[in-house]
Design goal:
The protein has 1 helix and 24 strands. It is an all-beta fold. The protein has a single domain, classed as 6 Propeller (Neuraminidase), CATH 2.120.10. It has a 4-stranded antiparallel β-sheet with strand order 1-2-3-4, with no helix packed on it. The protein is globular. The two termini are 27 Å apart.
Amino acid sequence: MSFNFLERFLVGGLSALFLASIPACTSASGPEAGTVEESYWHIRPSWSPDGTLIAYTVTLPSSPGVYLVDSSGANVHRLVEGEGIGTTWSPDSRWIAFSRAGGLCKIKINGDSLTELSTPVGAIRPAWSPAGRQLAFVLRNSPDLTAVWLYDIAIGSASQLVSFGDYPSWNALTGELVALDVQYSGGTAVYRFLAIDVTSLSDRTLAAFGSTSDCAFVSISPDGSAILYGLKPPDDLAQVWKYESAGNRHIRLTDDGGDNPAWSPDGSKIVYTRTARGDGGLWIMNADGSGKRRLTQP
């Protein structure tokens, strides 16, 4: 199973290695192994830097597009009709960038100035830099080959940063890009959370682990102390996990289906897709997994 199990639904060091230290996910009830069904109707949420809005993608055939909702759950409205996924906000909360038709676009949150950016075909998963000058993104050259690129907003051009990595997010404190890297050994994947210096191109391993599950949608917390990710077993529901650098701990935050996690700007809350069959909407929880509440209803 490849990294992009959600995009496929939409569009058709190493001493930290600890395979045994991640608790096994319990089997889903109902369908037999390998037939677990999940709902992904409201996906890939991202929180505005001012904390007031959440952008997300709706995959329902009757109303696809990029949507905005107040962080309270009020005032749902469509910003972009049709294809659009992987939203990221400008630091001033005025613009959103996203992937569309194999490239990147940006648009003002009032719906004006939809602009196609000069990025290579296959550009996905943008992440706006804290200073606002660059967009990191992933270029997928094949189903299993990715590279991290940077788009310079001022001059309107893109260049490759490193020839590896996926799901980039920025560490606002250090200016590093945090990305996911994977190596395969037999039936097990070894995942590494890497911090990449965008000037020297050196990288360091923040954490590493082995798993037979798909790991995806990695993002570092605003204070740099924790990393969110989704973990999808071959025969069970995806769940939201958090890695805490203090204590080198991996903590499971959901048990009834969770994916696409994203931090609030102050790091106190997490928005995610509840993937349990029949749901597929957005939920919000505290950073420790408590206080879960519904945000959107598909």
